[in-house]
Amino acid sequence: MKREPTQQIHSVPPPQLPSSLKDQDDTMPATSDFVKKLYKMLEDASFSHVVSWGPQGDCFVVKDMNEFTKSILPRMFKHSNFASFVRQLNKYDFHKVKTTDDAQFGEHSWTFRHPDFHADRRDALENIKRKVPAARKSIPSSSNGGLSGGRGASSGSPIPGETNSAELASVQSHIGVLQNSYQSLFSLRNQVGRAEERIRVLERQYGDVLVEMVNFQKGMAQQDGLMQGLIQYFLGEGGECL
What we know:
Blueprint (H helix, E strand, L loop, with lengths): L20 H6 L6 H11 L7 E3 L6 E3 L2 H13 L4 H10 L3 E3 L4 H4 L4 E4 L32 H9 L5 H82 L1
Antiparallel strand pairs: 1-2, 2-4, 3-4
Helix pairs in contact: 4-7
């Protein structure tokens, strides 16, 4: 009986999966999740028409605040509050700056800068720390001594500078929305004005056509009268000849 040759089965290595988001985070320096998300957002080319690095890579620019608030904030930071985003930047010592590039990106663009936040210096991200609130001086009370003052110092009261920046961002956000609405209304008003002018032109043209039709009908009536007169004349001449 002939023995069939045995076939050797070679194991096929499983396909390698692409790196996960966690692996990408492992390549980032040790810093906060907010700073990591901020950096990855700017590295995403699909967002560049709304938010991107500045020309020198030493700042980042929010070019379209409305689109940024509506589409990118919910995706990257799980909220849609631009004032809250600015307040978070302030806590990490980012500052809104006025640059010559504002004219390039529009007067409603927002530019933020931090000395350790650069497009080509990922290793410097670990230097970006959350600011520690300055200790407030306790005011001793005549009845409770220093105890009530200690409680006042430990209370989580907002820092005036941060509060003002957040309020300013909120006001400017509303101003931007109102300006966009005004521009839309102004554009719509211009369109209505052009449509009304077009209607007036069509009305004048229609009137001219009516006048021409009336004149044409008058001319035809005159020609009919002339033809009738000629026919009667020739009929009369023919009768006399007979």
